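In the previous chapter we treated chains in isolation. Here, by contrast, the input contains two separate entities that must be folded as one system, with a combined length of 592 residues.
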Amino acid sequence: MNSIKKNMKLTIPAFLLIFVSICVIFMPMLLPEKPSDQSLDEAYQSPSKMHFFGTDKFGRDLFIRFLHGGRISLSVGLLSVLFALAIGVPFGLLSGYKGGFVDTTMSWILNLFMAFPQFFLLLAIVAIFEPNSVWWIVIVIGALSWMDIARIVRNETLSLKEREFISACRIVGLSKKRILFRHVLPNLAVPILVYATLMVGNVILIESSLSFIGLGVQPPTPSWGNIINEGRDVLLSGWWISAFPGLAIVATVLAVNIFGEEMQRMNVIR
Amino acid sequence: MLNYFIKKLLSGILLVIGVSVVTFYILRLGPGNPAAAAFDPNSTRHDVSQVNHLYGLDKPLLAQFGEWMKNIFRGHWGYSYASHRKVAEIIRETLPNTLILTASVLFVQVVFGTWLGLVQVSKTNSLFDKSINWLTLALYGLPVFWLALVFILIFSHKLGWLPSSQIVSFYYKDLSWLGRIMDRLRHLALPLLSMSLVSIAVMARYVKASLKEIMQQDFIVAARARGLSERRILYKHALRNVLIPVATLTGQYFPALVGSSVVIELVYSWPGMGRLIVLSTFARDYPVIIACTFVMSVFVVMGNLFADFLVACIDPRIRLEA
């Protein structure tokens, strides 16, 4: 009974995530409308059979925009995390394994980056470099979220390198690179995976906040965050504009978090 | 003890210097000319170079940085490109508002988060524990700005209970002192609620996890063996120990809290630093952006320092080790 319950916490969020991904990847291919198709005489229609999620001030179908926006939001989430991992994991490995002066310096750099309120630095960079494509957003968010993963990897590496099998590798005469990537890294796969999962939820929230402010993904390209922003001024008369993308963010992030947390729990138990 | 404090303080100062270096260079290495952005397209090249000279933008980068460092510690923070007012003056107006908001959120977060965690552990696996668990998990993934919109829709528009924007009413000056306090509190209510719900959830989950770990340690087992009641163990022995992770988390979570204040301040038109940096970002008002980032980072460093000191005061192991 217990094992079924445990699995439920993994399977339900997993199915939800797969369902959302399939929807946002494939449904736009099947539907002929584009997210930017306007029809001004259909502006501000509430949800109906014609327009599942209603229409906005330009008469654009919000269901179509929702699907395309989901594509953007989810891919920004996933890609930013991959980018953050690409920086954080090698950083943490090196810092933890080298130790001594290298570790002290690298830890200081880590602390320095963590001293910034991430969102303030994000805004400052967005203001200066004016990232105008989704790729830029991915890079900027990724470049500002690698610190936690680097710290986790560093601490784990620090404790791993004292273990016998790593000493054995060193005695056999393997190169540092080989020890790090073939022997240390595989042992860190689970904590990295768990943390990366939890990070996806966080990054989706950051992207949506940024787009909500109007400094992230720029309209007419939809993202869940900027659709919510478009509904902000007409909250009373057009509640549906902000409601559905908001619920989608809540559901997606919740699913990611439950999934990640359950993995973490099982990892601890194991 | 003193050694520990001095060491922490020095590393804090070093971090502040590092922060100022990073902010300065990020902002100056960006493309585009800040002086050109501040003036109309009709200005000639001569005008622009004059403006550059006025703001010292024609000096070498290193000299500019030296100048900036010197001025920032003297309190000369330059002039805003957009409003031509003193940056220090603008910061002085907005900073207290942000501090009021974040301080009240911190207070609510620590008190209610710890309390929820404690109650959950004392009633493990009860209906209360399970429902709070789900609630905090759901809140954990909530976009605060969306929550803020929902609250405005419900509490301001539909029910008309609470104001949805600004820090005081326009008739604030005519109110009695009690009325003024009430007016401020009413304006604080919605921003505080939408910001603290998420942070309470974070805190409660963390406290619960740490408490569960603590409850399995030897000194708790010893207390049980001496026949103390579960309640006394939890509130006398475990609570003291859970304060350490609470202080640590509060320090660590502070940057995220400040970050979420940005969107909250924007949605509720709360005249604080978060709203200021967004508006300045739209206006490309570089001096204000630099100052905001710098000031907030200094606050984060100070917050972490404070958390470290607090942990050292609570936990003798840390200060004796160092």
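Chain B has a mean pLDDT of 82. Residues 186 and 258 of chain B are 21 Å apart (CA to CA). Compare these points with the single-chain example from earlier in the chapter.
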